[in-house]
Write a structure and sequence with these properties.
heterodimer, A: Immunoglobulin-like, six-stranded antiparallel sheet, about 5% helix, B: alpha+beta, Immunoglobulin-like, 4 domains, five-stranded antiparallel sheet, 20 strands, about 40% helix
């Protein structure tokens, strides 16, 4: 008994607390960028540098591109002003995502003698692919008329708070529709998806917003959806996120072959959303004599 | 005199009315008359002056001015008359407030505002008791009057869509105010009713807001407690009161700034000024002799204040006297004056004050002498800059749909305001009102109007001191456009060229500031091209229309949002004419 107690103590010490087993699929951030020790006031003619930390605070690996730009009349940035990055996200075993520090240099223009001050916004744009993965437990009950000895009761499942990505699943609603065959029910899932962060959703692989190139209208808000129900792939309709009316942001997925009539049970719905995300951070510099 | 008589009678009236109070106050009996003696003359003085101000001889007639019933019921208590006077003053105060606030105070939905007014009454009640050492009962009555406001607000809401009716209602209610106030004050039960009514109002009015707020935070509240609702209400009222305070403070600051001629914005409001006073001002121009005699030498003196930063400044001064004539067939005689100095030069970054001394010889100073004019001329340059943010058309639409602050997408220049440097002329430039400017990739070229207004603001801003300022001519314009933008039209001239007096020059040919050819297009618009507008300067402003354009695929470069700066440097001749009227006294022998 004593040995068992010592062994348990040893094992719990090895566990290192709850951090290792922390769920990575929480939060609404994807790639974050921030100016390190931002320069706010500069002198005319001065050479300035900008350090930007790009950090994957979500749960997906991300491949992306960036550009930095400003008003050249105030600050002329040196090449290269664009590049690419690939950053691993958080996981169960690595609770902190990968980060990268980028460095940019520039020269401040001279001011006219009567001009006391000038301002310029230094914009850092990122366009990166991202993926939202969510697993939601749903209750399947093909016999709603019976109300005793049930394992679970069907209801709308809320999945608020994000899944470690800027686009998140908020609600999952399941309905069982009668199938063609007797005793078979077709589950239909209505999944509410929303842009939970500050950026703009574009189709996977699209980098044009960051590069000043025209982006086709149909690429905005386009999200690829893949879902499985108890590991069986579902059929999902193509989906575009609508930022102006969030009530329309619903994906409908069905299992055409259906499920047999059986007592209530809990199953897992797995949803994977694929998209690209455009985000910008701005630092205003003031030129003062 | 009658006022002082009434003051002497006051203690008697007090004794009759409130014997209990007198008994209680027996102990400080020795002190009280002294205090009364000290206080009464002050009150009487105030009442007397008020009465005399409105042309009445005594308090009774003041009360009758308020209402006959007041006069009848106040036969025995001067204190009540004093109260009535105070009420009357407060009512007048609120009348003025309501004129300013108009409809807003007479609406039930503007709860915070009218409750703030109620609080003013409570405050007055407290002042009445603590500061003026009046009976507590009167203070409570005075405070209770404040709760008359909900009724007024409720009546205002019967006419929810008529602001003018609300204002009219405000006027009518406040002309009746003294009667109503008195009625409420004399019936504490009604005051209590209003107080309870107010509590219910606060609760019911803010209940929904609190529930909504709680709902947004994921909490369901069916019947929030009074404490929760009132805390929310106090928070909201605080915000409103602080907003009103800020507005009043800013209005005061603005009026002071306008009064001193500082920081006045141009009427069109498309630009703002960089506030460093540059240029020339003429001050204190006057004749040394107030009424010179015929034949006497006339000395006109004055001061010139001048400041420049980047450019040398040459100032010329001319002095001319004029005769007067009532006969239109007789020409006005112009008499040249003699100046001690007629030119002043300033180096860059100079700031000087020079004296003007003009002598008109005595032989020209005769009976028909009218005035002396000092004309100060100088060439000056004013600069204006406008920043525009450009964004792809589809991205702009998407950003708009997102309904998040534009700054989160790097769009910071959204007001379309240009800023101009200090001087006697204000220059505004604008492109399009809708900012940021979206770039449609389906069009090859993006063309933008570039409208520039040069306005004579010297006198308006009192920057030029004494006299009338005028723009004599604009001698040159430099238009600087961030590449890839080019100037495609100036006035009616399409694709302007050097032959039309508009030349694209390099940064080396641009004298005003360092610029770089690889990022800037510089256009030099000469006087020949600007003479199209020569006749328009006299009206005080002139608007010049230009057009700029750029290939759409180059505007954004490799960025989501691009900023392009447009600047104009205007070189112009400006003059300040200061007139001094001189009344010449005729010689005595001539009178004979």
């Amino acid at each position: 008994m004593k040995r068992l107690a010592v062994l348990l103590l040893f094992l719990s010490a090895c566990g290192g607390g709850g951090e290792v087993t922390e769920d990575a699929h929480v939060g609404t951030d994807g790639i974050l960028a921030q100016y390190i020790r931002p320069t706010e006031f500069v002198l005319p003619g001065e050479r300035v540098g900008f350090l930007i930390e790009v950090f994957n605070d979500g749960a997906s690996i991300s491949d992306g591109a960036y550009t930095i730009a400003t008003d050249p009349q105030v600050l002329q940035l040196q090449d290269p002003t664009s590049g690419r990055f690939k950053l691993k996200g958080r996981s169960t075993f690595t609770p902190v995502g990968e980060k990268k520090v980028l460095q940019f240099k520039g020269r401040v223009s001279e001011l006219a003698k009567r001009q006391q001050t000038a301002e310029a916004a230094v914009r850092f744009n990122m366009c990166y692919d991202y993926q939202t993965d969510a697993t939601v437990p749903v209750c399947v009950d093909t016999r709603p008329e019976l109300d005793r000895d049930k394992v679970c009761v069907p209801s709308t499942v809320s999945a608020g708070g994000g899944q470690g990505a800027p686009v998140g699943i908020e609600l999952v609603e399941m309905k069982l529709l009668p199938g063609e065959a007797e005793g078979v029910f077709v589950p239909r899932f209505t999944i509410t998806v929303n842009n939970l962060n500050q950026g703009v959703v574009v189709a996977k692989g699209v980098r044009s917003p960051c590069q000043g190139k025209p982006t086709p209208k149909e690429d905005f808000g386009r999200i690829g959806v893949q879902a499985t129900f108890s590991n069986v792939p579902l059929q999902c309709k193509p989906f575009r996120i609508n930022p102006s009316d969030k009530s329309f942001n619903k994906v409908v997925c069905t299992l055409p072959e259906g499920i047999p009539d059986q007592p209530a049970y809990l199953a897992h719905l797995t949803v994977s959303l694929e998209y690209a995300y455009f985000d910008t951070i701005v630092q205003t510099i003031t030129v003062q004599k | 005199m009658k006022v002082s008589t009434e003051a002497e009678e006051k203690p008697k009236a007090d004794k009759k009315e409130s014997p209990k109070e007198d008994k209680k106050e027996d102990k400080p009996k020795e002190d009280k008359p002294k205090a009364d003696k000290k206080e009464k003359p002050k009150e009487d003085k105030l009442i007397g002056s008020l009465a005399s101000a409105i042309g009445k001889s005594n308090i009774g007639s003041l009360a009758s001015a308020i209402g006959k019933s007041n006069a009848a019921t106040t036969k025995n208590t001067n204190d009540k008359e004093t109260n009535t006077t105070a009420f009357w003053l407060i009512a007048l105060f609120f009348l003025f407030l309501d004129v300013f606030m108009g409809r807003y105070s007479t609406s039930f939905s503007n709860f915070g505002l009218w409750f703030a007014f109620s609080l003013v009454y409570v405050f007055l009640g407290v002042v009445w008791v603590i500061s003026m050492k009046k009976p507590v009962k009167e203070g409570v009555q005075l405070s209770a009057i404040g709760f008359f406001w909900p009724l007024l607000a409720l009546i205002g809401d019967f006419f929810p869509n008529s602001r003018y009716f609300g204002m009219m209602l405000g006027f009518v209610m406040y002309f009746c105010h003294p009667y109503v106030l008195r009625f409420v004050a004399e019936h504490p039960r009604i005051s209590l009713f209003y107080f309870l009514f107010l509590i219910v109002c606060i609760y019911s009015f803010y209940l929904e807001d609190v529930q909504e707020l709680a709902g947004a935070r994921g909490i369901r509240l069916n019947t929030p407690s009074f404490k929760v609702v009132f805390s929310y209400y106090i928070e909201k009222s605080g915000e409103l009161i602080s907003f009103i305070g800020t507005q009043l403070a800013s209005s005061y600051t603005n009026s002071i700034r306008l009064a001193t001629g500082e920081g006045m914005e141009r009427v069109e409001g498309e630009e703002e000024e960089v506030k460093v006073d540059l240029g020339v001002a003429v001050r204190d121009v006057k004749s040394e002799l107030k009424r010179p005699k015929e034949g006497e030498d006339l000395l006109i003196t004055g001061l010139i204040d001048a400041k420049t930063i980047d450019l040398p400044l040459a100032i010329t001064v001319a002095c001319t006297a004029f005769s007067k004539t009532d006969d239109s067939t007789v020409a006005v005689r112009e008499i040249p004056g003699t100046l001690a100095d007629d030119t002043f030069s300033l180096e860059p970054e100079d700031e000087v004050q020079e004296s003007i001394e003009c002598i008109v010889p005595g032989e020209d100073v005769d009976a028909d002498f009218d005035r002396v004019e000092i004309k100060t001329g100088f060439a000056f340059t004013t600069t204006t800059t406008l920043k525009n943010d450009f964004i792809g058309k589809q991205l702009a639409r998407q950003v708009k749909k997102e309904k998040k602050p534009l700054s989160e997408y790097g769009i910071v220049h959204t007001d379309g305001k240009a800023s101009f440097t200090s001087g006697p002329v204000g220059i505004g430039i604008k492109t399009v009102t809708a900012q940021p400017i979206s770039v449609d990739p389906e069009k090859n070229i993006l063309g933008l109007p570039l409208q520039m207004t040069i306005e004579n603001i010297g006198a308006q801003r009192r920057l030029i001191g004494q006299g009338k300022g005028s723009v004599d001519s604009v001698s040159r314009l430099y238009v600087l456009l961030s590449k890839p933008f080019t100037l495609s039209r100036f006035s009616a001239i399409q694709n302007p060229s050097a032959a039309e007096g508009i030349a694209q020059v390099t940064c080396a040919g641009f004298p005003h500031q360092a610029c770089e050819d690889d990022i800037t297009n510089v256009y030099d618009i000469s006087k020949a091209a600007l003479d199209t507008y020569a006749g328009e300067y006299e009206q005080g402003f002139v608007t010049m229309n230009m057009r700029v354009e750029a290939p759409t695929d180059t505007i954004l470069g490799t960025n989501a949002v691009a900023t392009h700066t447009f600047s104009v440097f205007a070189e112009y001749d400006y003059s300040i004419t200061t007139k001094v009227k001189v009344d010449v006294e005729k010689k005595k022998e001539e009178k004979v």
